[in-house]
Design brief:
The structure holds two protein chains of two kinds. Chain A is mainly beta. Chain A is built from one helix and ten strands, in the order E-E-E-E-E-E-E-E-E-E-H. The two termini of chain A are 21 Å apart. By secondary structure, chain B is α/β, with parallel strands linked by helices. Classes of the chains: A mainly beta, B alpha/beta. Bound molecules: flavin-adenine dinucleotide (FAD) and FE2/S2 (inorganic) cluster. Chain A: InterPro entries: Rieske-like_NirD, Rieske_2Fe-2S, Rieske_2Fe-2S_sf.
Chain lengths: 111, 812
């Protein structure tokens, strides 16, 4: 079972936008869609490292701000002709709070 | 010698007749064409899109001057025929007579005017021609009260069009529900609800008693005592065939001019076609049968045998967003059965009327995609008992699985009708395509398919695609992105015409196929909306590219660059000190002077941006918008104040312009250059707008480029007055904001729009120039502010930092 950690309030993330969480695994972008779903993706485009958290969010897709690669936030997979994957992490919303997979916190402590 | 053919009326029916004649026998006739309207043949059906703003008059002209000239037609436009002298074969207008060998009467019909008091007052119009349309457009633009009498096809198109333009519209309809001749009460109700959602008031069971007013219309009074205020009244209660000259000439006339199967009147040398005729006791009000008449009459005139047989026609309402389809007979009767489907949530209603296992009537509202399929079954009298259970779900259900639209089109038989207006079947389109018509325009030219009401365009393209396979690229310039088939221009027009004021509203109403759009359409829509509704629409940061959202340019390593504004390239020691301090405080790795005469601080971390801006703000520095599709820089040279060649205060003018224009959003970036003399040290002649100061004043030129493309500016205007120069430049920028496609630099836009047109708008037409400047100022009342100050506010700053830092928590 995934353990979750509270990282902040849903309202702190703009609708159709993102905020970044720093983790030991690097930056993770937390996206909020127009229907208040939450997705957590590595904040690094596999193409040339663009910060996905600064991309335009449309539906459950995000477009990298540097060269317009489009990713499905459910799977992290690049869409269309581009080939690539971004890591995704478990995340959820409960009672207006956003929770992220606690493994991102633990790994370092375990090490 | 050529035979003399005189045609009375240059409308849709006679236009089609002439096309056939010139095609089959180009040299047979010498044609004289009279028209009461002061213009030639245009697509009358398309007046509704002109009224609503979706099309312009130029786009709906069918035959232009060149066409008439090419066929040597003697055009007498604006000249009515008042008398036909049959014994001497001469027709007369008020300018004199013209002899004929053969005469065609194609006078169409005249709107019916209900005989109530006040019907002659100025401000009462009908809906038939361009003059009526323009009167309604004006009422709409002025935001006036308009009353439409008549809730049929025409009345509703008039009402929706005026409402889209901004009028407050009331529809008064005599019957219990709208369009009662085409719709049953349920579909009429859905239609009424949709119209009411657009702010149109609908009054059914309303009988008009009088039109009130002294000098011009002021109100409409109903039998039940209700009074609706009105600056304009449109009567759209029906039409009657225009038969007056035929009656006077003692031709046989009942309700219409009586013609036989060959379209001949009671005089063997006089023929008639169009809405003015009566054939077999029947009158006509839609173009499809008229086009058939044109085909028949062309043959008759050329001495061939031909017989006119009217076919049934279906009706569609051309109001964007109200989809309805109606064909056949749907009155209740004991020997009939109904199949009805309702989905009130989605506003859908379908009804099929059956008699003896054959479809005899179809009414659809909301989703009309299957209309033509039902209509085909009805025309062919197909026995539908086998598919009865699933019939209402359309063709997709009949094969068991859902067909994609391409497969459905591919499966249609050759005789399936694709274009209802022009009676073009699939086979004919396929033949044309195989014969080399590989673009929509060619198919249109050769078969006429999709050239009238246009609702079949999608289908025609699908037939082309099915025929050509991957060889056919569906007309690409169309959609602004993959989410829609509407072009940029259409979307802009519709945002305005339909009063759409949010991105979701645009996507909903214009049928976006994606959820939430894409990275390409979202910034464009955001721009179009804020340009159209500066006071009502709120800029949507999340629909902006990162640079505009963060008011700084993102660099390839994810850091940002910060460029404060230096008005006209002029700065002070205090400003320079503040910039130097900021550079040190935030460890800026590179400080660079830009080509636009200011200083770039490169390599700033996102979380430092707000604090750095606050520091710069304190020294009076504001955002230089070096990241925006908006006003970037105004580059100047020193000018008369110091330079020995300078003719005017070029620096002062540059500062003045920059203070006026800064903060405004534009379709793409805008850069200005102001040079104090023709030596042009500010390189003004490759900017979007350049000014060269000369002894006699200011030479303004526009549409330069110095990027991937290199282009010198073109002269727009010269003036002795600095104030006028500023005004012209402001008007130019506003015109660009209102008309250019998103991401077109001014030079691209001017190339498309034409410099002459631009000149006419901002230089010659003083009133228009003033209006443009006013609209720019309205927008600037919102946008002439420093975005840095807004985001640097203390309670905003946290938003620029990470939401959480789990590396710290892990270490604890
Ligand atoms: C706003 C609107 C929307 C419509 N929408 C549709 C639609 O969606 N589908 C559809 O099938 N039909 C539609 N119609 C109907 C269609 O436009 C007509 O059926 C068609 O235009 C009739 O063609 P016509 O040639 O008979 O007459 P017209 O096109 O009216 O042409 C007649 C011409 O004769 C001229 N004329 C009259 N008397 C004289 C004279 N004495 N001397 C010289 N000239 C004269 C008139 O000025 C006119 O220009 C619409 C009509 C209108 C007004
Ligand atoms: S870095 Fe993401 S598209 Fe290039």
């Amino acid at each position: 079972m995934t353990l979750f950690i509270d990282i902040g309030a849903l309202e702190d993330i703009p609708v159709q936008g993102a905020r970044v969480v720093k983790t030991v695994e690097g930056c993770v972008a937390i996206f909020r869609t127009s229907d208040d779903r939450i997705f957590a993706l590595e904040d690094r485009c596999p193409h040339k490292g663009g910060p996905l958290s600064e991309g335009i969010v449309h539906g459950d897709r995000v477009t990298c701000p540097l060269h317009n690669w489009v990713f499905d936030m459910n799977s992290g997979e690049a869409q269309g002709a581009d080939k690539g994957m971004v890591r995704t992490f478990a995340a959820k919303v409960e009672a207006g709070r956003v929770f992220l997979d606690a493994a991102l916190l633990k790994r370092r402590s375990a090490a | 010698m050529k035979e003399k053919l005189v045609v009375i009326g240059a409308g849709m029916a006679s236009g089609r007749l002439l096309e056939h004649l010139f095609e089959i026998a180009p040299d047979r006739f010498e044609v004289t064409l009279f028209n009461a309207e002061p213009r030639g043949n245009y697509n009358r059906l398309m007046l509704s899109p002109v009224l609503s703003g979706e099309k312009t008059y130029e786009q709906i002209v069918t035959h232009d001057d060149d066409w008439y000239a090419a066929h040597a037609v003697d055009c007498r436009f604006g000249e009515s025929i008042v008398k036909i002298d049959r014994s001497n074969r001469i027709v007369f207008s008020n300018h004199g007579g013209v002899p004929y060998n053969k005469l065609v009467i194609a006078t169409g019909s005249a709107p019916f005017i209900i005989p109530v008091a006040g019907k002659e007052l100025p401000g009462v119009v009908t809906y038939r021609d361009l003059e009526d349309t323009n009167a309604m457009i004006e009422a709409g633009v002025a935001g006036q009260n308009a009353v439409v009498i008549g809730g049929g096809l025409l009345g509703l198109e008039a009402a929706a069009g005026m409402a889209a333009r901004g009028a407050k519209v009331t529809v008064i309809h005599l019957m219990g529900h709208l369009m009662e001749r085409q719709l049953d009460p349920s579909a009429g109700y859905l239609l009424q609800r949709d119209l009411e959602k657009r702010g149109i008031t609908v009054h059914c069971k309303g009988a008009t008693k009088a039109i009130l007013g002294k000098e011009r219309v002021e109100a409409v009074l109903l039998d039940d005592g209700t009074i609706y205020p009105a600056d304009l009244v449109c009567m759209a209660v029906g039409i009657r065939p225009e038969t007056r000259i035929a009656t006077d000439a003692r031709l046989e006339v009942n309700r219409g001019i009586v013609v036989d199967d060959a379209m001949r009147t009671s005089d063997p040398n006089i023929f008639s076609l169009g809405e003015c005729v009566e054939h077999d006791s029947q009158l006509f009000g839609l173009v499809a049968p008229l086009y058939d008449q044109a085909k028949i009459l062309a043959k008759t005139l050329l001495g061939e045998e031909a017989v006119f047989r009217p076919v049934q026609t279906a009706t569609k309402l051309k109001v964007t967003g109200c989809d309805l389809f109606s064909a056949g007979d749907f009155a209740d009767a004991p020997d009939r059965e109904d199949i009805v489907f309702r989905d009130p949530g989605r506003g859908q209603y379908k009804r099929i009327v059956l008699k003896d296992d054959r479809i005899i009537g179809v009414v659809m509202y909301g989703d009309t995609a299957d209309g033509n399929w039902f209509y085909g079954l009805m025309k062919d009298q197909t026995d539908v008992s086998e598919m009865r259970d699933t019939l209402i779900f359309g063709p997709a259900f009949q094969g068991g699985q859902k067909l994609d639209p391409m497969a459905a089109v591919a499966a249609l038989p050759p005789e399936a009708e694709i274009c209802g207006c022009n009676g073009v079947c699939k086979g004919k389109i396929v033949d044309a395509v195989l014969g080399g018509a590989t673009t929509l325009d060619l198919v249109r030219a050769q078969t006429k398919a999709s050239s009238s009401c246009g609702t079949c365009t999608g289908l025609v393209e699908q037939v082309m695609k099915a025929t050509l396979g991957d060889g056919f690229v569906m007309a690409k310039p169309q959609g602004m992105c993959k989410c829609t088939d509407h072009s940029h221009e259409d979307v802009r027009r519709l945002i305005k015409a339909m009063g759409l004021k949010s991105i979701p509203a645009v996507q909903q109403e214009l049928g976006w196929t994606s959820v939430g759009g894409c990275y390409s359409c979202r910034p464009a829509l955001n721009y179009y909306l804020l340009a159209e509704w500066p006071l009502e629409y709120k800029d949507d940061r999340q629909s902006r590219f990162v640079n505009e959202r963060n008011h700084a340019n993102i660099q390839k390593d994810g850091t940002y660059s910060v460029v404060p504004r230096m008005w006209g390239g002029v700065t002070t020691p205090a400003e320079l000190r503040a910039i130097a301090d900021a550079a040190e405080k935030y460890n800026v790795p590179m400080v660079k002077v830009t080509g636009g005469q200011r200083i770039d601080l490169l390599g700033v971390r996102k979380e430092d941006l707000p604090q750095m801006w606050a520091d710069l703000n304190e020294a009076g520095l504001v955002s230089g918008h070096a990241y925006s599709k908006g006003l970037r820089t105004v580059k100047t040279c020193v000018g008369a104040q110091f330079c020995r060649f300078g003719t005017q205060d070029s620096t002062g003018l540059g500062i003045r312009l920059e203070k006026l224009l800064w903060g405004s959003w534009t379709p793409h970036k805008v850069k200005l250059g102001i040079s104090g003399c023709p030596r042009n040290c500010a390189e003004a002649t490759c900017k979007d707008v350049g000014v060269i100061c000369v002894d006699s004043g200011y030479q303004i030129s526009v549409a330069g480029a110095a990027g991937m493309e290199l282009k010198e500016t073109e002269h727009l205007a010269s003036t002795a007055s600095e104030d006028e120069a500023v005004e012209i430049i402001t008007a130019f920028v506003q015109l660009y904001r209102e008309h250019a496609r998103y991401l077109d630099r001014p030079y691209k836009w001017v190339a498309k729009a034409g410099l002459d047109w631009v000149k006419a708008q901002v230089v010659d037409d003083l009133e228009n120039r003033k209006a443009l400047v006013e609209r720019f100022e309205i927008s600037q009342s919102v946008y002439r502010t420093d975005p840095w100050a807004e985001h640097a506010a203390p309670d905003e700053r946290a938003k620029w930092a990470p939401l959480a830092d789990l590396t710290l928590e892990a270490a604890e």
